[in-house]
Design goal:
Length: about 300
């Protein structure tokens, strides 16, 4: 028996038991994940059934203006132009959450593609792709987003594409580092010996073992995308035809003193979403921590 095995005690036994659990059970066992899931769940309970929770159109301004919260059927009050605030936040949750998830998925896919090719092939391919990645890193992301959205338009599709194209470099660098380490492991060398194609080795042999840090970064990208969209909307570059939380803050900024609820509730929704997704990312990092022997299981 090795010395490390002899020295292992009850604490190590608990770690070993945890490492054999499926990923979803390890994830749900993390306190940050539990809190984050509750916060995001509350937002989803408002956003998904929005048509059944409110009869007001979030874009129609046909209600009395500046009604405070709990004014009849207007649970959160109304805006300066007579929109029902609860309706706008509920429908806006659909837009903001969908945007954040879409940006995270797209940026993670781009980062996985660039990082895996760069790390596995190495050589001049690695040099070219990493210099290209560093170019996106050194450019201020928010200001470049301002310029691109101002030039190509403020539609939600343009915003998703722009934010995704500006968010992939961290994922690419982390995935590249994983591939540089894993491509010299025995199971990869064995796959080369038996003649497996390069694409299969990259996608089937190495990728499942390099996904953990990319998933963690992807979960954090959701909250960053929501914040960036809110910042763009606050500067007047959000999609004017959609009731996102950022657009609500734009409408409310002039009335912070006279109608603070117009700022408080959209700001609270953004804060809850950002904290929730960050906590889920923290839980993912703990569940996938290699020191616990974490690995993908069914």
């Amino acid at each position: 028996m090795s010395p490390s095995a002899q020295d292992s005690g009850p604490a190590d036994e608990g770690t070993l038991v945890q490492s054999t659990l499926p990923l979803w059970r390890r994830l749900l066992a993390q306190r940050p994940t539990q809190v984050g899931a509750v916060l995001i769940g509350l937002l989803l309970l408002i956003a998904i059934p929005a048509p059944f929770l409110t009869a007001y159109d979030p874009l129609r301004a046909n209600n009395p203006q500046f009604l405070p919260p709990l004014s009849g059927d207007h649970y959160l009050g109304t805006t300066a132009i007579g929109r029902d605030l609860f309706s706008a936040i509920a429908y806006g949750g659909r837009i903001s959450l969908a945007l954040g998830v879409s940006v995270a998925l797209l940026s993670t896919l781009i980062g996985l593609l660039v990082g895996s090719i760069s790390g596995y092939l190495g050589g001049w391919v690695d040099d070219v792709l990493m210099r290209f990645t560093e170019l996106f890193i050194v450019i201020p992301r928010f200001f470049l987003a301002l310029v691109v959205v101002a030039i190509f338009g403020r539609s939600i599709v343009n915003i998703v594409v722009v934010l995704a194209l500006l968010s992939w470099p961290p994922v690419a660098r982390v995935v590249r580092a994983q591939y540089l380490t894993l491509k010299e492991r025995e199971f990869v060398l064995a796959a080369r010996v038996i003649g497996q194609p390069t694409g299969r080795i990259i996608a089937r042999e190495i990728l499942p073992n390099a996904l953990a840090p990319a998933i963690v970064l992807g979960s954090l990208q959701v909250s960053q995308a929501i914040l960036l969209e809110a910042s763009l909307a606050f500067l007047g570059l959000g999609d004017p035809d959609l009731p996102s939380w950022g657009n609500l803050l734009v409408d409310a900024q002039r009335f912070l003193g006279s109608a603070p609820w117009m700022v408080f509730f959209p700001g609270l929704a953004i804060t809850v979403s950002v904290v929730g997704f960050n906590l889920i990312g923290d839980g993912l990092a703990r569940a996938l921590d290699p020191r616990t022997g974490a690995r993908f299981q069914g």
